[in-house]
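Trying the structure run again after the queue cleared.
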Amino acid sequence: MHSGRPRNLGKAGTLLAFGCVLLSGCAGEGGRLGKALIADRQPAAHARDLEAHYRVRSPDVLRVEITGQPAKSAICKVGLDGRITLADHQVDAEGRSTERIATLVAREVGTQVADVRVSVQEYNSQQLYLFGEIASKHQVLTYRGPETIIDLLQRIGGGTQGAALADVRVVRPHVADGLPPEVFHVDLNAILNKKDLQSNIRVEPGDHIHVGQNRRSKATCNLPPWLQDLCHCKKPGSAEGEPGAEKPDLPDR
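Done. Tokens:
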């Protein structure tokens, strides 16, 4: 007659015990960084600052408002020739800031610059590409201006529960320039906890942002399917609550 726990739990029991240990583990450094990232969220005014530096391109959509001339105010799509059309007026918008476009509109329609307001209605021309443990549901994201990597991570909601926020990299392909790619390591701990902004780079159109997978998540995802479901395992690169990752459509090299 035997008392107490059985001598041999069997393979299934061992895996279950292992899975329970993983589930009960603390978030560790990744969890602390994730909380610090959200706590440091910047105000919405940042969006206006970014727009001031954004360079408009086809096929972005602009909202043009002209005080006292409602007939010439419009929502305009930047054409293939880089121009927008306001009634019987055309203005070259390609590669220009909204402030510069407002100055050209005022000159074209014969009014004061202070009476013209130009803003970006839809960001359609430039993209960023997300890989790994990203909280965003989309792996191709609109580029809205030279925001810092911290601003971008906050915009997309940070990383998933399986993210290794100490392993964030920005890869700049330089495809159009014919140069080798650059890789920037982002030290979130230094940025958020030590106020060392050296690695808080500003993203550029076409950048690839990679967030690694922590060891706990990697180990969990190597478990059998029934334990993966128990641990809420998610394939790297997929969005929260989605079954798997979809590869983004990348530009041709």
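Residues 94 and 152 are 24 Å apart (CA to CA). Worth checking whether this holds up in the mutant runs.
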